[in-house]
Amino acid sequence: MAKFLALGIEGVEPEEYGPDEGSVVSGAPRFRSWTRDEADGGLSCGIWEATPGKWRFENPHWEYCRILSGVSVVTEDGGEPHIVRTGDSFVLRAGFKGAWDVIETTRKDYVIRT
């Protein structure tokens, strides 16, 4: 097995789903996710995309994100809204609770540690 893995999605079937029932605040957001690699220690990486809409969520794991395209607003409960767009990077620490509002279809790459 090669030790170099490009994170492209050509030829890779995405998982398609939506937010948990009851968590949608507005719109009808849909997700596509391409898990590209998993490693020992609870690490995984891939690409995720969401269509416009707003939902509430809790992030039980640590996650690094880089926005590849689109515009979203991520708001932690009790915190200020953060507008994230193409080129922005951020971390959602384990235990994050808040809302994700996709303004323009948003695609990100991610690394998760569970």
UniProtKB/TrEMBL annotation:
(S)-ureidoglycine aminohydrolase cupin domain location: 38-110
Annotated InterPro entries: RmlC-like_jellyroll, RmlC_Cupin_sf, UGlyAH_Cupin_dom
Short name of one Pfam family: Cupin_3
Coiled coil: none
The organism's place on the tree of life at top rank: Bacteria
Name the record gives this protein: Cupin
Taxonomic path: Bacteria, Pseudomonadati, Pseudomonadota, Alphaproteobacteria, Hyphomicrobiales
